[in-house]
Protein 1
Amino acid sequence: MVVELISVGTEILLGNIVNTNAAYLSEQCALLGLSLYFETAVGDNEKRLEETLRTALGRSDIVILSGGLGPTQDDLTKETAARVMGKRLVLDEHSKARIEEYFQNSQNGQITENNWKQAMVPEGCIVVDNQNGTAPGIIIEEGEKAVILLPGPPGELKPMFERAIYPYLNEKRPETICSVMVKMCGVGESAAETKIKDLIDAQTNPTIATYAKTGEVHLRVTASAKDEKEAKKLIKPVLKELRNRFGSCIYTADENVTLEKAVIDMLRERELTLTTAESITGGMLAARLTDVPGASEVFKQGLVTYCNRAKRKLLDVKKTTLKDYGAVSEKTAKEMAKNGAFITGSDICLSLTGIAGPDAAEDKPVGLVYIACSYNGKVTVQEYHLKGERAKIRESAVVKALTLLRECIMADGH
Amino acid sequence: MVVELISVGTEILLGNIVNTNAAYLSEQCALLGLSLYFETAVGDNEKRLEETLRTALGRSDIVILSGGLGPTQDDLTKETAARVMGKRLVLDEHSKARIEEYFQNSQNGQITENNWKQAMVPEGCIVVDNQNGTAPGIIIEEGEKAVILLPGPPGELKPMFERAIYPYLNEKRPETICSVMVKMCGVGESAAETKIKDLIDAQTNPTIATYAKTGEVHLRVTASAKDEKEAKKLIKPVLKELRNRFGSCIYTADENVTLEKAVIDMLRERELTLTTAESITGGMLAARLTDVPGASEVFKQGLVTYCNRAKRKLLDVKKTTLKDYGAVSEKTAKEMAKNGAFITGSDICLSLTGIAGPDAAEDKPVGLVYIACSYNGKVTVQEYHLKGERAKIRESAVVKALTLLRECIMADGH
């Protein structure tokens, strides 16, 4: 089954927004095992939208349009799609009632005459409730073809797709698709690919796809079967094999778990507390840890010691260490971690010091980073040579720190 | 002049990457005053790429293709474009020499036979040097039409576009386009639009376009004239009028200056030092300040006091304050800022405490945030009710803190 995407909105053509909807919908279609050959972005222009939709329907089975379902005159996706599919627009009482209800919540502003436009739908279509806005989603079926209309705001499109469109598309497939995302740190992309080249070369069902993220590698394992239970049964031995090959590099097989969440969970289970002592990353590590709801159970405080004086004053790094070895040195990283844990009374302290650039410093190159982990009094320190620009180096350093922390805890045998 | 974009790459259709190139190129075309009606993404497939390119050439003057210029067999953008434009591929000695040079730097790996493919170019084309990779950019002109090929990696595409393609397109226009980005904080999008509605309604040349960012509003002023000097002359009175209306809400009229950079510059000029004391944002404010190269001149350290004990121990917040008013209170924010400045010996301390969610706490709602700024001993505190999910609330809080800091310094009359 071939699917095609059309993103509608002049703001895309003007470059005012990055089209993340297209990336999301593409990934979902890939997950569903649907073929996707073309994606088009077109403005809020009736003629060009009609041309694009007719071309898409000529070569694809299902066309998903996003955007242009708003209440204003500019928004004409629904009107155009209905005309191309040969359908009249009729009032949908259910959608009308939902819009009224939405505006009864005074936070959502005043209802205007325009809003009723959003309750008009192509006759005989499937109406999909919008739980985060007023524009309903719409599925128009005609013969073997289907046109799906989704609202443009990602906060409306994504939940609607997950709840109603994914199951609709999955239903249309002869088989059910199931997938698991295996996330790893501490292993490079090409090393990971080499390690499973035989599996990838021999794969039919399930398949394995590799995704490189900063400092991480994700593997999506996808199986197709007559039902979910069968698909999961197919995935199980592959997961086991991946665990055999990558061991503790795998930090989760749950799509929704981030590395920082996995680390926080690990600390929580072991009832360990963590402090950060950051120089090069200037608070990024702490910020990332506190992205996780409930981080406060294990992460109580962090210190950003950006200048030498702060390293001395807040972390008791020795004056002679800074003088003889420099702020970017194994010795400074060690003292930061050791003293950080002691001063705050935490079980663990992660410290980072390095050169993010753009300029080198202390006669040391951009990208040189030392990360230390003090864990129950024992300090492990690593030297890294990170690539890229300032922002990339800082981001990589944060991932390396989280990875080192995991390794230290696991080396402890827990 | 009508331009059209084609992004080539199966990784786009699989949703592995977000197509930021398309957003960048769209914005640049808008800046140049070029009309852009269609953007298509297509995989590394000869037949479908050819179909897409022929359609584009049928309705647009200039077609910009990005991606598919790599050294492997999969990459076929150049071969397809040459065939559609009726050109043979010939060896470009200049590009060959550049590729050799690139690989002489051993960091770039070993040269392989494949790499010479990248030195083949359509006969009679304009070759554009790639200063960040091995695939040259290519401009094929034929009659009134032009096809421009750019490498896919953003780190290669953007610098090449800026250096060579922007001037090439600008040259093709009958007039020159010039634009200035005016960036503001402390004013909402709809308030900003209302304030300049008369200017927008009456605009012809220059034009003003509004962009909403988290906690900020950006206005792009664009003028068209026979040369750059004339265009700048047209922009000048509009800038002056915007400064009249928005006053100190405008923090820069320089595209490349971020709010954190403007704040760092402001502190540097006044020789002021800054400390952060973060609870809700958990290091995000410090991380954002240290995104700016050279931030260390004014930002020496930051404290992340995520739990109450850390607020007491690191910032001397009174036990009775936390008990009687709670961690999320005006009084706690004030003490955090005042004590943070005193303890670190900084001129300024910004503190943030609030409830990011997902759950409410202390019987206070998600989104309630207090931000205090201690400046030369005087403490200003503000209460905010921020909307959105956890990440959005935290990001908004950081922008509010930077905005409050600007206001406090400016209120001081400097």
Note: The longest strand of chain A covers residues 176-185.
Protein 2
Amino acid sequence: MPIYDVTGIGNAIVDVLAPCDEQFLTDYKIEKGAMTLIDENRAQELYKAMKNVTEVSGGSCANTMAGLASFGGKGAYIGVVAADQLGDIFDHDMSALGLTYNTSRYLGSKETARCYVFITPDGERSMNTFLGACTELAVEHVDHILISNSAVTHMEGYLFDKDPAKEAYFLAGKIAHEAEREISLALSDSFCVERHRKDFQELVKGSVDILFGNERELQALYETDSVDEAMRIAGQTCKIVVSTRGADGVAIIFNGEEIFVPAPKVDRLVDSTGAGDQLAAGFLYGYTHGMSPEASGLLGVKAAAEVITHIGPRPLMQYKDFLQE
Amino acid sequence: MPIYDVTGIGNAIVDVLAPCDEQFLTDYKIEKGAMTLIDENRAQELYKAMKNVTEVSGGSCANTMAGLASFGGKGAYIGVVAADQLGDIFDHDMSALGLTYNTSRYLGSKETARCYVFITPDGERSMNTFLGACTELAVEHVDHILISNSAVTHMEGYLFDKDPAKEAYFLAGKIAHEAEREISLALSDSFCVERHRKDFQELVKGSVDILFGNERELQALYETDSVDEAMRIAGQTCKIVVSTRGADGVAIIFNGEEIFVPAPKVDRLVDSTGAGDQLAAGFLYGYTHGMSPEASGLLGVKAAAEVITHIGPRPLMQYKDFLQE
């Protein structure tokens, strides 16, 4: 029996959230809906322009782990922060959720990563990430004990923007499969997939058991306009492919069979940050607790529907309440 | 003509907000509705226990200045943060609002202050403050140029917990009055008033033109069960006394005459943090723009009604929109 349901590997990031209007995105040339990597100068320029700012721990995979913990799941996390106050905040927030988080702090001059999240009135989020200490994640952080004792090791695509992290992912895949555990991957962002298509294809083919992606991400992975085609290709090597469809719900391929789980209606979309992350959280909780793909998908869409009703990428309620419904 | 409408002097604090239930307050012996000063050990103990944490800039007077800026007022702020990341966040948030904030950073070993805010389901907030670098505020920070060029200098009672800050307040009063400007004081907290009653009485009598306090604070100031009696005593030396009455509205004594301004109805109280601060913001904006006490009070209750509908102590809308109504 594995000790952990899920170990996550990801970019350990503090989110810096601010509301803004469409004009602001135009004025500052921010690509709407995308995650763009930025350098320190650009980070300073954008931060200067932000008003009504809130700081919360973020990071795609870390958000998923927060959701898993909220369902009552047992999780661990691997990701690098610096020995600074933002690192303390990130560390606190993981530990407070009951997650095991032991990754050694980076002690050099880079600061803990932050993601500037611009939230437009339509609830869409446009992200600009300064990776800072995150970029230090490498094979030495891949904890053999955690991974070989976790039913699933969940990884986020964003880390593929740095070569040492790519190596870490392939190593994690090797460790997991040698221990007869599974690997799950969230593609994260279609532009990131395009930047590293070949490496993503290799990882998905050789190491990934459960693949998460929205339509654009899956299409980008196989350079096709058809998401069905993309899911079919992924499904040839992955046990499960989970394709998120926004407000519609989620399409799942499991053992070659396609299942569709509709999403609950959301009255008021406030901030879509974390929707995909919490979808993965619900699905992985269900999956690691012996539920069917359909039941797992239902937990996923419920969690995603909750997180978009408020500012911030992590649950504000106990997701374990969904288990009684 | 003064250059600034208001210069604020206060504890420069980053708020660390988390929802909790009533049991949590009992378990951790947190006094409900009060602001309690805590030491570093207690700060660590409480922080460890907090989940779903959000960080935002706070500090009573700084919140008032944020509100003033949101009305379109011109403001400056005096308060001490450390040369750390939380200090950077506080500094950024003041500057982003267009406020002048030039107080030199504290360079010693104390960190920027934080206030752990526990929000119960009834919207009440219970605050535990670790003052850190705040306690360094002293006469050398009292900026003669800012104060003598501001129509009003607004101060928060919380700073009275440290003697060097008391001295700074008396000096600010002297500078303001020599320049024919006015001093405003928010009593902040009835327990703080009780801790320093004599000094508060002396300050109010000798230096304060506009006094803000809720019923308990005003009663504590003069050791009386009657808020009317307390307002009458304060009104003998203060030009204006503003007594907040929660959901009912605000009572104002101006030139010996009492005015009552009812508060707008709020559908859903989410987090009462910042209500008194934004009341003062609205009132001071109106007052420094030549409005009547009644019109100023109306801006105050509108701002207070907005800030309690969401998490966090600062406006999420432009208060200048209230000016068109």
Note: Chain B has one domain: 4-10+60-104+132-313.
Protein 3
Amino acid sequence: MHVPMLINDFLKRAVYLYPQKVAVIEGEKRITYKELQDRVNRLANTLRSLGVTKGDRVAYLSPNTLAMFEGFYAVMQIGAIMVPLNTRLIPDDYDYIVNHCGAKVFCVDADLNHQINPIKDKLVNIDHFVLLPNEKRATEEGWLTYEPLLEKASPVYFAEEMEETDPATILYTSGTTGRPKGVIQSHRGLYFNALNTIIHLRATDQDVLLHTLPMFHVNGWGTPFSFTGMGATHVMLRKIDSSLILDLVKNEGVTIACMAPTVLNMILNDPKAKVTKVEQSVRVTLAGSAPPPSFVKAVEKDLGWEFIQVYGMTECAPFLTVAHVKPHIAEQGEDKIHQVKAKAGLNMLNVELRVVDSEGEDVIPNGQDVGEVIARSNVVMDGYWQQPEETAKAIVNGWYHTGDMGTVDEEGYIEIVDRKKDIIISGGENISSIEVEGALYEHPAVLEAAIIAIPHERWGEIPHAVVVLQNGSEEVTEKDIINFCRERMAHFKCPKSVQFINELPKTASGKIQKVVLRKPFWDNSERKIN
Amino acid sequence: MHVPMLINDFLKRAVYLYPQKVAVIEGEKRITYKELQDRVNRLANTLRSLGVTKGDRVAYLSPNTLAMFEGFYAVMQIGAIMVPLNTRLIPDDYDYIVNHCGAKVFCVDADLNHQINPIKDKLVNIDHFVLLPNEKRATEEGWLTYEPLLEKASPVYFAEEMEETDPATILYTSGTTGRPKGVIQSHRGLYFNALNTIIHLRATDQDVLLHTLPMFHVNGWGTPFSFTGMGATHVMLRKIDSSLILDLVKNEGVTIACMAPTVLNMILNDPKAKVTKVEQSVRVTLAGSAPPPSFVKAVEKDLGWEFIQVYGMTECAPFLTVAHVKPHIAEQGEDKIHQVKAKAGLNMLNVELRVVDSEGEDVIPNGQDVGEVIARSNVVMDGYWQQPEETAKAIVNGWYHTGDMGTVDEEGYIEIVDRKKDIIISGGENISSIEVEGALYEHPAVLEAAIIAIPHERWGEIPHAVVVLQNGSEEVTEKDIINFCRERMAHFKCPKSVQFINELPKTASGKIQKVVLRKPFWDNSERKIN
């Protein structure tokens, strides 16, 4: 029997089995699953009364709040398409994205609507601006007020007829070059990611998930769906604050949180972490560049939280791999475990991965040979919104090309060594910029560092370091930095030159824009970098 | 991106991530996943060389062996349809089923081929008979020999182009009336059941699954797929023997087994169970009628195995529910836990259940009101093979009608009280035959009992008991039995008459054929039972 895989199935199951259980905690507020469905129904009917129908886009700009959470379900329940926006963009970006996706309704948190007011007139497709309340403010002229809309709406459940291939969300990626692209994910794609999350992050009804990861970021990695399906509880978090996070972990009995490495680092370095003892088991899921094994150890030993590294990207809903430790590896002791836990890991269920060279041939699975990671799975996007030529570049012969360079070992563990665009090819040798940066970060005076390729007559490219020094650090010379690296790695990998600057250019989501750093070196070069 | 959900994905993942891990243990034999894929490839190519192509049926008659296990993957990999047969049928049944499904190749274990030899000439569609070896014998005239076929076949991987909606298996149900019907399950249906198994039975690569449940029975509940996908190890078991089971649990580090209540009862009553101590955690999954909570307690306390009750049927691949204990119920103490663990339980993910009255309206979820359990899910079959009218009776308005009468409580827990056909309606009151039988089984002299409806002028129907006494039990009268029941339940539920017989009529899979018991009472009645 064919029953379409629809995202609202997860909420339906929670409402059926856990109606009286707390679904969402926001500050002092507690909303049960039954109440949540009631509010979602009212929001769904509100959106319909505002003219939103199947296939229409609804944009959200909000930190992690109950209203944002409700948005996911209400929008998808009526067959519309959720477009959650990065809260760290600038008005010009919002102008571009909201017009590009053609959203009809724009729901914006009261903390952020000052970013939208100056561009309201430019958002020509938006019929209605809805203000989502913050703690202090719920109304503003020119904005519809959220709670009264819900109050006067019908609480009767309505779900649009849908197929699982219908788009559920468009997620704009903060590319390091050019304008963001809109990743289209279907209900089926999100559903598969949710099942994989349930399986590989072991979601249960005993879980209390703290939303440390922004929900605009790949829909909070799909946790609003996966953990709801199992009847877990969601704890909202408006702002990253390590002290507040530690309090919530303790007071709300948080068992799992997903976050960026910087946030976990902040928690680890908070003196409060040492004195906050909790009874429940806590696991923390990280993505991003591979941490040093010593970091994994610190999290597991000092903080006492189980460390789970995952790897993925917006185009993949997002999960491709999880750094699961196989039983026979776990027997090899803690050092080995921490080392394996720092990798990207093993492909999840229903995810096929390959690591291929420039000819498209599989590299030898020896953990050494580097190639591009490519993926085939239901979690891969359907394409970029209204950019078929970009889609065709990303999905070739049925395989999504991640743009990440990595290795795979004989056990199937993937390690990411670099972005394809950032790898340096010097005298025919591949140099991983991430590896060299790792050495630079060990230098006590280095706050941030980026290694880029610059043109060189003999070697084609050579590694060049761009370094931001710690405040108040001793004077450090170019030679010091180069020698420091030479003590740690093969000489051909070490930077040949070092540039000190005050700040690295970054995207809104915090990725270093190496393209900006490279530009001055390549503009007048005869050779051009790929 | 659409990637079809195909059963061979599970084996592919295991071969990719766990090539050197033991996949199958059969006696002294150990086969790694890499070796298993090699053997599956050879079998797949053998079947192709025997003329099997996409959509063709291949029948298997075998106990739980490596060869049977290989059959599932090889048959499905080439797009053919696996038809595993109940080993407890008689030649006349095999004649009917093999001809009905139109299988081209028939693979039969050497323990069982004596059942097939007398009917070989009648199996007109079978082009090739393949003998699967037992411990003593591998060849017989008129039968192809398994291992030499594999040896000479190509080990090159071949997989047919398939869609997830293609049929993967036809499972003949041992109905309690009439000829067995062939349940068609697609790759998608089996895939969903496997995902649900992984989630709700918590399958991991640390698992060692003992195949105590016959693989012919709903493909071993899909465990050859689910546990393979996670990289677990499978231990084969040719015959049910509680002593051998306990040895394997200890010696092979078994962590999970699925079985019928009678098998678990056998293990529990084996004196060896008391002296067999194992280090690993063991969980046991049961289906069938709800056990008394005292039985759950005995399994968990005396045997030390985690007890997991599930509910389903061949038509549902098979799982619909699992008796998961919600956290807030677990807090209510052990007695409550054992009571909840004995229920059919909560609907799994992607399974919608309703309990409806004869008008199709939902009964009140009070754990009291009885209705028919109906299901809507991807795990529901596509239909009965070449029996569209039977399919139309079973799936009405998109809901599969299980024929099971049950209750649902406010927490969503389902309890099955009776088969629809077996419930007794006396003076307008529903009487659960299972409930009355439960009371009869408490009588020390009763070995087996069945309660059936017989016609009655005033009440319409009344409960009638058919009882088999224990060997050597004291003399027991009809009045004794009736009084025994009256001490235990409302008088209207108690049998009004008792019949003593030597043996209850049963199907090949051990279900009591109440239709046979009812027949003489109803043949001359003006009223007819539904």
Note: Residues 241 and 267 of chain A are 8 Å apart (CA to CA).
Protein 4
Amino acid sequence: MKIAVLGTGFAGRTVAAGLAKLGHEVVIGTRDPHATLARTEPGAMGTPPFAQWRAQHVDVALAAYPEAASAAEIIVNLTNGQGSIDALTAAGAENLAGKILIDIANPLDLSQGFPPSLKPVNTDSLGEQIQRAFPEARVVKTLNNMQSGLIADPGRVAGGEHSVFVSGNDAAAKSAVTSLLQSLGHRDVIDLGDITTARGPEMMMPVWLRIFTALGTPDFNFKIVR
Amino acid sequence: MKIAVLGTGFAGRTVAAGLAKLGHEVVIGTRDPHATLARTEPGAMGTPPFAQWRAQHVDVALAAYPEAASAAEIIVNLTNGQGSIDALTAAGAENLAGKILIDIANPLDLSQGFPPSLKPVNTDSLGEQIQRAFPEARVVKTLNNMQSGLIADPGRVAGGEHSVFVSGNDAAAKSAVTSLLQSLGHRDVIDLGDITTARGPEMMMPVWLRIFTALGTPDFNFKIVR
């Protein structure tokens, strides 16, 4: 399938490479491709400049948000949560309409330092904000509460024996996303309900960050045992 | 050990019975023991009247909050989260001072119906509120994100293969609580850090409630696989 991954950070790159490996036609969307490729300094958390990464991943294209989104059947939001609405607005509502929009971003607010708080939280979620802002997109919230390496390679922890949630208003979209998740190796996909249930997995981020600190590694995940 | 469980609801009863079974001297604390025993109607969610439960659990005592707390070495908070500070105030700060206070309550706000939101949330937690209100108590937040039947009998789900968190400022208190958890059968106890980390497990309640709905049973738990 033609998939646009919005976001050039570590998570966007990792997910784009994983999807390309499965044979999907993947393009990374960014605000300004020339600026993205011109950067020569490492990004946040020491990620290499995009052009350097791109040289090793020639199967992944790069395009401006609207171009990437308009050509795609599925759009994946991996932009910074506080800037996601802006990025999707730049991609163009008309380029999202009728399409599956997989929202993996987290609304982390780092303005007060570490640990971040969430904004929105509790009575709203980023997933809901995106669905409200783009009512014709078929938003599915998923995969936000695990490190990005696990998204495309769940087997790297506990042989893939862990769980992933989906939230969304469109049953067919959730079903298609569930199939995509299974093709990536996710075996336990739990449908939480409509898009308001995205609050749950987003609100797992505070404990995720604390477990990360306690264990000293992001290589863990939540398994719902029953 | 002498343990006071504050709260006469389903969770308080279940935990009190489980601790008594292990040989601890357990008293349930309530605001007005006479009123608690005089009730003849079922409680919320169809729990039988307390006197009826008590007749089958003669090894568990009943006392007013201050009496229960003053005689105890460990106090367990299983009161309604929105009323916990009031209940603990009624128990008396002098009866909590220097003692381990295990906080299992959740600050669920049902004023807007189901699903509840949390109050406090995000930049504060009930665990922190309790620690601030009773600075001489040694507060340990734990066990709040699983159904109460699992607290005292973790083996009833997945042979006990799941995880429990502890948060608190007092290392010795966390160590003692970890031993108590292990004596109940909890094998994977993860120390998240100081009491501010209680935000994490409290903010897992929204997803807990949605998983409960999705699975149709509260008999599940989170296992941190790594």
Note: The interface with chain B takes residues 112, 117-118, 121-123, 157-158, 161-162, 165, 190-193, 197, 199-201, 203-204, 206-211, 213-215, 217, 219-226 of chain A (CB under 8 Å).
